[in-house]
User: Fold this.
Amino acid sequence: MIATIRTDSTTLGQRLRQAREAAGLTQNYVADHFGIKRVSVTQWEADTTRPSMERLPELAALLKTDVAWLLDASGAAPVPIVREPKPRASRTPIIPGDELVGGRDLPIYAAAMGGEGHMIVTFEAIDWVKRPAVLQNVRGGYGILVRGESMIPAYWPGDTALVNPHLQPARDSDAVFFHTPPKERGDEEAIIKRLVGMNDREWTLEQYRPAKTFTESRVDWPICHRVVGKYNAR
Assistant:
């Protein structure tokens, strides 16, 4: 995200504050850097006192600007730093081989890219694999071969999301959403996202690349199947 900064730069104190906010630094950080009290930085920015001329070069370097701009606004003003939010790690577990049970009776469905983080899932099994214990005796359980990069690092292309279609939607869990109930055969548009909230009207979803939180209508995406694990392709 881009820092919100003040752009009034008439005085040295105002320019110090503008540069500090553009650099994404706190008054405490600046004070700690110079071994002074925070109130001293507050007084600089309020034009009550001024930093010494000897300190200005180091201060300008810390604030990622230059001395000339701090003194008289010569040259370009500091540009706010763009900081990408860090994605939260997925809690969907990777299923190890020693937790597989039974025969190869879990269908794996292929998916193709559908644009804007969407997948087109073909409900005709391309493979049958052993089930994880969490899907033992779960009728209708399945796996989807993940495509796209919107959920990296939780899911990389080629990972298999393991799905229990009978579990109720739960906050802070991964889920696959469909426009219509999946049929035994045919293609369905789907998205796999982190479910972070919900109400009667919409889902609040999270993806990681690019990192964003957004909402989708429950009328448009009425079907939610819980992801209970994954097989790692790597």
Summary: The helical segments are 12-22, 27-34, 38-45, 56-62, 67-72. The first helix runs from residue 12 to 22. Confidence is low (pLDDT under 50) at residues 1-5.
